[in-house]
Amino acid sequence: MKIRTVKPPVSASPRRPSPGRGWPSAATGSVLGAGVKRPNSKLRPGEGRPDKVWQLRLYVAGQTPKSVTAFSNLKKICENHLKDRYRIKVIDLVQQPQLSKGDQILAVPTLVRKLPQPVRKIIGDLSDTDRVLVGLDLRPAD
Fold first, then answer.
1. What is the average per-residue pLDDT within 57-76?
2. Which of 24, 28, 100, 125 has the most CB atoms at less than 10 Å from its CB?
3. Cis check: omega of the bond before 116, within 30 degrees of 0
4. In angstroms, how far apart are the furthest CA atoms of the chain?
5. Can you say whether the dihedral through the CA atoms of 19, 20, 21, 26 is positive or negative?
């Protein structure tokens, strides 16, 4: 009777793949970077991102009138222009002041667009919708 030993397959890299390359996406459940072709042409603001989930962080200092107004305005803008393609995370710096260092927050309320890249910041209550749309790259500047 012959005994065969079977060696496990050797992977090309012993390290785990970096995020964005082969890891499942929490938003869509698909694998990022697998057979995705990216266009060479530059995209106009707000175009070419139909399946991307926008990650937005709103930094506030308690439930001040400006903070409440900023959240309300942000919610309206997202509903009108991003439909179901956004996530808003409200970070209260009164409760967690250490989180202001991560995004270098100097004033509140501040909106930070984490995704899609590049990161953008908008300070204020977001009442000027046109300026917010330009700042978020949803509408081209005139």
1. 96
2. 125
3. yes
4. 82
5. positive
Helix (H, G, I), strand (E, B) or coil at 132: helix
In the prediction, which pLDDT does 121 show?
A: 96
At 82, the amino acid letter reads L
Q: Which pLDDT tens digit goes with each residue over 30-53?
A: 222 333 333 443 444 545 445 689
Distance in angstroms (rounded) separating the CA atoms of residues 43 and 83: 20
Burial of 74 (0-12, 13-18, 19+ CB in 10 A): buried
For residue 16, what are the contacts with CB-CB under 8 A and spacing of at least 6?
Answer: none
| pLDDT 10s digits, 118-130 | 999 999 999 999 9
pTM over 0.70? The answer is no
> What's the CA gap between 83 and 92, in Å, rounded?
25
As given in the structure block, the two tokens for residue 99 are 């989180």
3-class DSSP state of 18: coil
Question: Other CB atoms closer than 10 Å to residue 13's CB: what's the count?
Answer: 6
Tokens of 55: 């990650």
